Automatic annotation (TrEMBL):
Name this polypeptide is given: Small ribosomal subunit protein bS16
Feature: compositional bias, Acidic residues: 147-167
Basic and acidic residues: compositionally biased ranges: 95-122
InterPro entries: Ribosomal_bS16 (IPR000307), Ribosomal_bS16_CS (IPR020592), Ribosomal_bS16_dom_sf (IPR023803)
Length: 173
């Protein structure tokens, strides 16, 4: 007879309460069991000591005679220090494959090169602006002196254009 340490559900609708039982693996989940070795109340807080109550001596006995715990009961036994549970998830499964890693590296190098090119372009753009800013005052200085010299010379008033003359005729008439 194959014996399993598993949960047997009790409680009302939407109010679960489980017994931790040693049962024949061929029997139904909530059917006849050999012995109740603990309880599990998932409605209690995770740090509550009454959430999982386990008779350690009887659990050790049933494990000793070959009972196989379900996943959830194995977690409870591991937390109680009765039986070590091996991790079931493969931590490398979520890791990307070799080709995906290569694509990610290529993308990272292209992004780095683009960033360097952008910085270089900004430096080149700012460098000529500084050079023109330094050169512009030198060029503007003679230009600023020239109008000062021409200021004493008076210019004759410019003749009126034909459009201005037509506008004056309409205003008079």
């Amino acid at each position: 007879m194959a014996i399993a340490l598993r949960l047997s559900r009790g409680g009302a609708k939407k109010r679960p309460y489980y017994r931790i039982v040693a049962a024949d693996s061929r029997k139904p989940r909530d059917g006849k069991y050999l012995e109740q070795i603990g309880t599990y109340n998932p409605l209690l807080a995770k740090d509550d000591e009454k959430r999982v109550q386990l008779n350690e001596d009887r659990a050790r006995y049933w494990l000793g005679v070959g009972a196989q715990p379900s996943d959830r009961v194995a977690r409870f036994l591991d937390a109680a220090g009765i039986r070590e549970r091996a991790a079931r998830n493969n931590p490398n499964k979520a890791e990307p494959g070799d080709k995906a890693k290569e694509r990610a590296e290529e993308k990272a190098t292209k992004a780095a090169e683009a960033e360097e090119a952008k910085k270089a372009a900004e430096e080149e753009a700012s460098a000529p602006a500084e050079e023109t800013a330094e050169a512009a005052p030198a060029e503007e200085a003679p230009a600023a002196e020239a109008p000062a010299e021409e200021a004493p010379a008076e210019e004759a008033p410019a003749e009126e254009t034909p459009a201005e003359e037509a506008a004056e005729d309409k205003a008079e008439g």
